Amino acid sequence: MNIIRIEAPDDPRTAAFRDIRERDLTGREGQFIAEGEVVLRQLVSAASRCRPAAVLLAENRLGGLADVLALSPPAMPVYVAPQAVLDGIAGFHLHRGILALGRKPDVAALPDVLAGLPRTALVVLACGIGNHDNIGGIFRNAAAFGADAVLLDRQCCDPFYRKAIRVSVGAVLRTPMVVGLDATAAVEALKAAGFAVLAMTPSAELTLDAVPPAARIAVVLGAEGPGLPADLIARCTPVGIRMSGGFDSLNVGTAGAIALHHFARRA
Amino acid sequence: MNIIRIEAPDDPRTAAFRDIRERDLTGREGQFIAEGEVVLRQLVSAASRCRPAAVLLAENRLGGLADVLALSPPAMPVYVAPQAVLDGIAGFHLHRGILALGRKPDVAALPDVLAGLPRTALVVLACGIGNHDNIGGIFRNAAAFGADAVLLDRQCCDPFYRKAIRVSVGAVLRTPMVVGLDATAAVEALKAAGFAVLAMTPSAELTLDAVPPAARIAVVLGAEGPGLPADLIARCTPVGIRMSGGFDSLNVGTAGAIALHHFARRA
């Protein structure tokens, strides 16, 4: 294990971890910052599609992470610093005491991802989701219900943003995805690939229970508030979730979870 | 309409709105602060169990709220202030520009609430939920699926905390609730009232689809991470949500939503 002690916040070896919040806003070319033990375990797990490039730990966290670090590449730098130095590098008090620098997977194109899906498949297409909590929740639920891929249109925020990864409990790191899509083109590509494309929208008359069975299902989710654009819904089968009537309001991630639970393969 | 112009942040008439964040931490005896238009609309709606005591608005929000204010008690003070004065009162930049002071409903006792439930009933019992986002999400989902009441044990955080109300989209203000319960006593009271008491827990062998029908259903939710205590689960019927197997992780509010959707009355 390549343990390197860091004594000063301006040590150039930890430059990638510096001023995290400011650099969250600009993004990191091909890389991302993950935080906390649960996410680090996902990052180094066999199911991860990402690779760890380095970790930076508070001194008191090193002992508890031996099993995780044993799964990491032996040459990977494990920077260890006193809490105050760690906070100085990050630019805020990092109470979790665990940061990892990861490398994103190669960018995937929609036709390639669709071509690689099994005959029975479940995917999510998220459109215009600009909230990192909701993007993280969508990935968490996609992983929980075994969705084969998550597709994001170009109005969605970056799923590799630190908070989105954290809210996803690391699911962002393991779930096949395509980002930056044109929503209309994605819907048409899904239909051409034999998917029943279901636009989740509160106004739909067809409810989940009444959706005809299909081997390939795509669940399309839009932003809370505006919802999916009418012209996109018109290209899909609109589907609603039966609610009580007096208070028809669900978080978008929650609505997606209910749909994914409904359509998940009975293993 | 009782519109009162406020020109200075230290105007004593707006004392109840002062230093909101600090006072969030101590609670407000019998009162709460709500923020934003969506929550204000819930507060003054016919379904609300709470009453508005006063509102404080940024000048530019007054025009758009005429219909909401018309539903409020005519004598209720409508304080209107320039944005800078509003920010000075609240102690932070209040970009929503809308605050309301509300009165909580009378405290309810569990036997009274149970005695008032219909023969076919759906309730949530939340145990040890210390996260305001999760409490808010549980109330939002309870309202969406027409749950008759939400019961909180004494380890849950305050549902009238400002952020919990906001995340609930105002559902906290309309949903019958009992707070401060002993979880074990609440489970036993539910059983005595003829409820099938279902402890949602990932380890359960019985999944939602296999739960026998019952007229009265109580969904018991525990905190993410620790989950429900084993001795409490032993008093209930443990129920799980079928997941993909590789990533068995759902947010507690999301798990509750899936269960409530499953058990909600087919209207």
Automatic annotation (TrEMBL), chains A, B:
It comes from the Bacteria. InterPro entries: Alpha/beta_knot_MTases (IPR029028), Ribosomal_eL30-like_sf (IPR029064), rRNA_Methyltransferase (IPR051259), SpoU_MeTrfase (IPR001537), tRNA_m1G_MTases_N (IPR029026). Keywords: Methyltransferase, Transferase. GO terms for biological process: methylation; RNA processing. GO terms for molecular function: RNA binding; RNA methyltransferase activity. CDD domains: SpoU-like_rRNA-MTase. SUPFAM superfamilies: alpha/beta knot (SSF75217), L30e-like (SSF55315). Residues 122-261 form the tRNA/rRNA methyltransferase SpoU type domain. This is tRNA G18 (Ribose-2'-O)-methylase SpoU.
